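Structure (tokenized):
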């Protein structure tokens, strides 16, 4: 069988007739010799485009009718298609007698097939060159064949026949085929260092599919590799804005990875001094002692997860104000640091602090990305883009994050490690249920130390000899401090600065100041940040709880004190428990002695004598009714 590229003789007495060549990778065209054939109206060109897109396979008559008229074909639709086929036959084979089938556009029971050789249709040539490139062992030669294949494209498939050419599956599939070959070609070119050969094809493909992140990522990498980092950065910013404006999404992992690699290449001279792993952990506390059970539990949780192949994403360290959460977290981080050789990152989130407003997740991410070598001016503005870039930067690394003084889960949800191998230690004064449930963190609640550990804390700060010389006074101090590490530290600091004052004197002062915070300068400020985070009704309940005579309070008794319904009182106690200002045991709430003293101090300041009297009266009436 002769192909359309072969020379075909005209009838006797005629001249040599050149073959017909077809194009569909761009406008639909048919050429003979140096001239274009006139393909007729839109519908006839669409019939030819379908035949060419099928590349030698049968196109059903029903498919042609549906393509030309969609859902409302006329009664004459089939006859019209036959007429188009006849016209195309005579275009392909000039001089073909009327009603003759010819040898190229052939009728089948189900429809029609255009017999077309590889060299006479750009689509077939494109596929043959791409297949040869994939088989090629020489990367440079493969890139050249890819470039030759992609140079055949002169625009979108079946250009000029929109919107059908943009929506019909057969044309959409050819565009997808092109996009995949562009991606394969770009990957080969990047590996071979021959990006310049592919840049024209990449630009053309991206222009046609501006929201294709995979293509955009490869264009950015190719531009960066050829020294066009500024242009690559501009393209990234453009596509980031386009994704947000048109689709309402942030760049995905592939595009973010290309962006990060672009920054590394562009900023390599500036970050050369920053390649060392960050080591940002605060120094370990010089007087740290005890807490071996808590530290051991944390290490066992991590080891158990590792043994079962589960990543430990985070440890949620929480407890009441002054219980030593940060000190414990820092000691734990230093113990775990050798297992995270790619570095340690630290941030004080200022969730409960006088040092300024709490840090947003975006501020935390910007700080961490800067620590990992990326300058502030090159970072995206959107939170999700920052988070994606951070996860990309963390991918494959083993890093330890210490996120101290967290105010809420939203501060850390985007900062948690996204891949196995890294760990976040998060401290907070609130029980962060979201971090535990949605973030997959192990809870690590911190209670006041045991009496033995509290004695060790005091001895480490004052010296074992001084504590041993006045053991009963030391025990009294520990009791008055409620074993709270911060209170012990404040008392020990006073004793150290006044060596002539005996421990018995200090214990006597604390005893005489029972039910108040006199002698604990600095403790009210530490408590105040938790108190200020309460809603007004719960803050009032906290103050009035100091009027309860017993160590534990029921929901009903709390309701009587506050003059509210039990449901409201229960919600208030739950809020106090969330902020670690009470501990719930067996349905009853207990408040630490020093917190009770703080609540009493606040009540005397903010509640009138009449309000306190009425609260006591309601409580007595409630007790008398039982």
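Design, position by position:
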């Amino acid at each position: 069988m002769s192909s359309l590229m072969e020379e075909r003789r005209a009838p006797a007495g005629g001249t040599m007739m050149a073959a017909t060549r077809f194009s569909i990778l761009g406008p639909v065209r048919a050429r003979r010799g140096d001239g274009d054939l006139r393909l007729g109206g839109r519908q006839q060109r669409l019939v030819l485009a379908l035949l060419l897109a099928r590349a030698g396979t049968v196109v059903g008559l029903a498919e042609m009718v549906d393509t030309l008229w969609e859902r409302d074909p006329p009664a004459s639709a089939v006859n019209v298609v036959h007429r188009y086929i006849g016209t195309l036959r005579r275009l392909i084979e000039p001089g073909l007698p009327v009603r003759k089938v010819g040898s190229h556009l052939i009728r089948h029971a189900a429809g029609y097939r255009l017999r077309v050789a590889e060299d006479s249709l750009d689509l077939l040539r494109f596929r043959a060159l791409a297949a040869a490139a994939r088989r090629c062992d020489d990367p440079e030669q493969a890139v050249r064949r890819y470039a030759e294949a992609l140079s055949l494209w002169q625009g979108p498939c079946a250009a000029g026949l929109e919107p059908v050419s943009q929506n019909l599956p057969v044309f959409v599939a050819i565009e997808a085929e092109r996009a995949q070959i562009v991606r394969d070609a770009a990957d080969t070119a990047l590996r071979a260092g021959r990006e310049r050969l592919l840049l024209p094809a990449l630009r053309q493909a991206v222009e046609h599919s501006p929201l294709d992140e995979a293509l955009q990522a490869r264009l950015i990498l190719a531009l960066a590799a050829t020294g066009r980092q500024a242009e690559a950065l501009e393209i990234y910013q453009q596509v980031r804005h386009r994704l947000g404006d048109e689709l309402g999404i942030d760049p995905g992992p592939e595009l973010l990875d290309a962006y990060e690699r672009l920054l590394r290449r562009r900023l390599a001279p500036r970050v050369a001094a920053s390649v060392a792993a960050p080591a940002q952990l605060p120094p370990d506390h010089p007087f740290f002692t005890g807490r071996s059970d808590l530290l051991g539990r944390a290490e066992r949780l991590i080891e158990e997860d590792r043994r079962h192949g589960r990543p430990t994403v985070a440890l949620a360290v929480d407890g009441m104000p002054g219980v030593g959460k940060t000190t414990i977290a820092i000691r734990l981080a230093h113990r775990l640091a050798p297992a995270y050789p790619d570095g340690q990152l630290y941030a004080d989130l200022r969730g409960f602090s006088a040092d300024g407003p709490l840090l947003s997740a975006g501020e935390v991410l910007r700080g961490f990305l800067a620590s990992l070598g990326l300058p502030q001016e090159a970072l995206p503005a959107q939170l999700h883009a920052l988070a994606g870039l951070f996860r990309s930067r963390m991918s494959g690394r083993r890093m330890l994050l210490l996120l101290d003084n967290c105010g809420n889960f939203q501060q850390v949800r985007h900062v948690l490690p996204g891949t196995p191998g890294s760990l976040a230690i998060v401290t907070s004064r609130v029980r962060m249920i979201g971090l535990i449930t949605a973030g997959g963190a192990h809870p690590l609640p911190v209670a006041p130390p045991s009496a033995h550990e509290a004695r060790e804390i005091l001895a480490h700060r004052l010296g074992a000899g001084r504590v041993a010389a006045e053991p009963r006074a030391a025990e009294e101090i520990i009791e008055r401090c409620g074993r709270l590490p911060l209170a012990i530290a404040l008392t020990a600091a006073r004793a150290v600065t006044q060596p002539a004052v005996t421990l018995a004197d200090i214990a006597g002062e604390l005893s005489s100041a029972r039910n108040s915070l006199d002698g604990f300068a600095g403790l009210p400020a530490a408590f105040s940040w938790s108190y200020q985070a309460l809603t007004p009704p719960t803050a009032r309940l906290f103050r009035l709880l100091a009027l309860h005579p017993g160590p534990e309070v029921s929901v009903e008794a709390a309701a009587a004190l506050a003059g509210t319904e039990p449901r409201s009182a229960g919600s208030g106690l739950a809020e106090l428990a969330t902020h670690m200002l009470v501990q719930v045991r067996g349905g009853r709430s207990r408040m630490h002695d020093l917190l009770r003293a703080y609540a009493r101090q606040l009540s005397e300041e903010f509640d009138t004598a009449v309000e306190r009297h009425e609260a006591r009266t309601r409580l007595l009436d409630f007790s008398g009714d039982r």
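Reviewer-requested clarification: Confidence is low (pLDDT under 50) at residues 1-17, 268-275. The CA atoms of residues 326 and 427 lie 7 Å apart.
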